[in-house]
Design goal:
Blueprint: H1 3-13, E1 18-21, H2 29-42, E2 44-48, H3 54-68, E3 71-76, E4 79-83
């Protein structure tokens, strides 16, 4: 992701609230599915990653991004902003 694109996405995400919050179970298949659905619908979302320490949050964030082929835009504390372009739908004629 280019720095200009990251800057624009950070600006767009400023007013967003987290749409998915990870629970005590961490990153489960159900959580990944919810994040994927939110990304399909919104492209740019915030996720609250509940983990005890910074390293664990970074590891969980990396897992989300790699599993869902998404890009990390920003991470501040427990809140991470993630971007994935919406899939292009083709209309049959």
């Amino acid at each position: 992701m280019h720095p200009e694109q990251r800057k624009e996405l950070r600006a767009r995400s400023h007013h967003l609230k987290p749409v998915v919050i990870t629970g005590n179970a961490g990153i489960t298949p159900a959580v990944l599915n919810e994040i994927s659905l939110a990304l399909d619908h919104h492209e740019l979302i915030k996720v609250r990653v509940n983990a005890a320490d910074r390293d664990q949050r970074a590891e969980m964030t990396q897992m989300i991004c790699s599993e869902l082929e998404a890009s990390l835009v920003q991470a501040i504390g427990h809140i991470v902003t993630i971007y994935r372009p919406a899939p292009q739908t083709t209309k049959a004629r």
